[in-house]
Amino acid sequence: MSEVTLDGRGRLTLPKEIRERYGDHYHIVQLHDGIKLIPIEDGPLDALRSEFADVEKTAEELRQEARNAALDEAGR
């Protein structure tokens, strides 16, 4: 874990090893106890395609499975 400090203008400089690993673009998410930086891929659509390349079901099939799981969990 690294420690960083905001400069006088409110800027945060991430350590080089973090930038090299995760890139230069982030979403900042506010949590109840802090913040979280989520890296943004240079090509977000390419990242999604590679993330889901092995999924063989259609979006509708996945949606229906999620709906059924939610109903089962709610005690249908």
Automatic annotation (TrEMBL):
GO molecular function annotations of the record: DNA binding
Coiled coil: 45-72
Domain SpoVT-AbrB: 4-45
Keywords on record: Coiled coil, DNA-binding
Matches recorded under InterPro entries: SpoVT-AbrB_dom, SpoVT-AbrB_sf
DNA-binding listed as a keyword: yes
Protein's name according to its UniProt entry: AbrB/MazE/SpoVT family DNA-binding domain-containing protein
